Amino acid sequence: MSANAVQTATVHPSTSAASAARPALAPEQLEFRHAMAHLPAAVSIITTNGEGGRCGITASAVCSVTDTPPTILVCINRSSAMHEVFRKNGRLCVNVLSDELEQLAMHFSGATKVPMEERFAWDIWEQPGQLDQPVLADALVKLQGRIREFKEVGTHSVMFVELAEVKVNEKKDSLIYFNRLFHKVKRTAL
User: Fold this and answer.
1) Quick one: the chain helix, strand, coil %, rounded to 5?
2) Residues whose CB is less than 8 angstroms from the CB of residue 100 and which lie 6 or more positions away in sequence, other chains included
3) What is the torsion angle, in degrees rounded to the nearest 10, for the CA atoms of residue 59, residue 61, residue 67 and residue 68?
4) What's the confidence (pLDDT) of residue 20?
């Protein structure tokens, strides 16, 4: 799910003004999107704060790269208004959502039209970590890091993020995105 996937999934294409300006997708693009909708993925709110401003997006395009040094990748659409904010700030926090935060995912996807500053005024944030990034208090996993590289691939940028701080909440369950819907995954005892 890209930063706009939740919003796209909740707005009927024929009613979206933005869809009128977009060219029709080729069959292979539609097939790819359909296949990716069947790839279950954790849902995260990616936040950033710094000289470029403060913002957050809902995304499922987050993946581990290596543990030496601990590095993840995060994908963001280059046409997103938030793209340059992330580039300018050079740091971010991946807040992997617990099962209780589905509505928050909708807010940060833009689907509810709640202004960005209002989202950051809610009493859902904890003290920023060592990189001074917005951290969700009830997140399942909190990963703060510095963006070491932006690599442009097609319509998106891949941000390679070297982690400086990692926190896991062992008591929360997970929220995933699968088949264009949110699903709750319960923790199983090992």
Assistant:
1) 25, 40, 35
2) 138, 172
3) -100
4) 56
The answer to whether the bond into 69 is cis (omega within 30° of 0) is: yes
**Nearest 5 degrees, angle CA 32-CA 38-CA 41?**
110
Cα-flanking dihedrals φ and ψ of residue 158, to 5°?
-100, 120
State the residue for tokens 């701080």. Answer: 165
Burial class (CB in 10 A: 0-12, 13-18, 19+), 145: buried
- What value, to the nearest 5°, has the Cα angle with vertex 184 and ends 136 and 57? 40
Of the listed ranges 18-22, 32-36, 76-80, 118-122, the least confidently predicted one is: 18-22
Phi first, then psi, for residue 128 (nearest 5°) are: -60, 150
Answer whether 143's CB lies under 8 Å from 94's CB: yes
Give the residue carrying structure tokens 């009927």: 12
Q: What are φ and ψ of residue 51, in 5° steps?
A: -65, -25
The Cα 55–Cα 149 span in angstroms is 19
pLDDT average, residue stretch 36-64: 92
